[in-house]
Amino acid sequence: MWFSQLASTVLGLALTASAASSTWQDTDIKMLPLRTHSLTSPYLDSDMHSRWWDFGGDTVIRTDQYVRLTADRQSQQGWIFSRVPLTATNWEIEVEFKLHGEGHLHGDGFALWLTKQRATPGPVFGSTDNFEGLGIFFDTYKNNRPGTSFPYVMAMLGDGQTSYDKAHDGKANELAGCSARGIRDASVPTKARLTYFQDKSLNLDLQYKSDNAWINCFSLTSPESNFNIPSVAYLGFSGETGEVTDSHEIISVNTHNLYDHTGNGPVRRGSKGSGRGGRSASKKKKSGSWTWFFFKSFLFVGAIVGSYVGYTVYRSQKRQSRF
């Protein structure tokens, strides 16, 4: 009984440790968390400051719930930016957010930023215009863009000189985008997942229809699309209201460095494979690694059995020698 319980415990711990080795959608791409660019409740340190983030404008932090960029009031702007730049070449940013408010019209929206500029209020969803880097805009108010359903999510790559086409909801600046009519007041947590492999791919997936059901908003590949993000860019979020209002809240941000130690290249989440080697090679390698893992586990359990049997024999002989 004692041995059976011990063996089960050891094997369970070994399986847990193996599962904790985080991989990326059954590939050889590993995810390494970046604490410097992640944000979760309570958001602030014990001294009511954040070690890795600055915030300003109308931003309000409620440590048990959210970082609210704007309240459901007119003419508000709020922002939060990382203190250190994101220098990883391959990364994934997953943000949970919430958009809600009263009334029939809502706006204006919020943005996710990866730019050389940081913590600078302005007219583009609460942050500066003429930015250099990437902006992902969650636009909830339609100004003048016929034929497009709102809310609308779009990407813009700024060169530091081009202004955002606010009058036409960024139509002249759009790198890629999609309509996402269900991101306000969704019945499940609303999330966005931005994945970047330098000089290879940029993907944005959204969750708002059902839990763990991701919808691809856009997928860009090089050299077909130009999406080179500055090697030194700050991660940030900003929100804005005007005559129409909404509460724009960031619930959590989880950023990971993506590390591919095989050189096979990126495989987008949910895809069947791409690049040399692809998913089939990954499965073969994982099958071999699992075989080796179980072999080592049985060796370990065998060692425990041997030790237990040896100890039992030794104790029995010692007991007999007394008589």
TrEMBL record:
Where in or outside the cell it occurs: the entry states:
Membrane
Pfam family for this entry, one: Lectin_leg-like
Example of a GO cellular component annotation carried by this entry = COPII-coated ER to Golgi transport vesicle
Q: Which GO terms describe its molecular function?
A: D-mannose binding
What InterPro entries has UniProt attached to this entry?
ConA-like_dom_sf, Intracellular_Lectin-GPT, Lectin_leg
Q: Where exactly are the transmembrane stretches of this chain? A: 290-314
Where does it mainly reside?
membrane
What residue spans carry the region label Disordered? Answer: 261-284
Q: Tell me the Gene Ontology biological-process terms attached to this UniProt entry.
A: endoplasmic reticulum to Golgi vesicle-mediated transport
Topology in the lipid bilayer: Single-pass type I membrane protein
All copies of the L-type lectin-like domain together span 31-258
* Alphabetical UniProt keywords: Membrane, Signal, Transmembrane, Transmembrane helix
Residues spanning the signal sequence: 1-20
Q: Which CDD domains match?
A: lectin_leg-like (cd07308)
Q: What is this protein called?
A: L-type lectin-like domain-containing protein
Its source organism is: Talaromyces rugulosus
What are the leading ranks of the lineage?
Answer: Eukaryota, Fungi, Dikarya, Ascomycota, Pezizomycotina
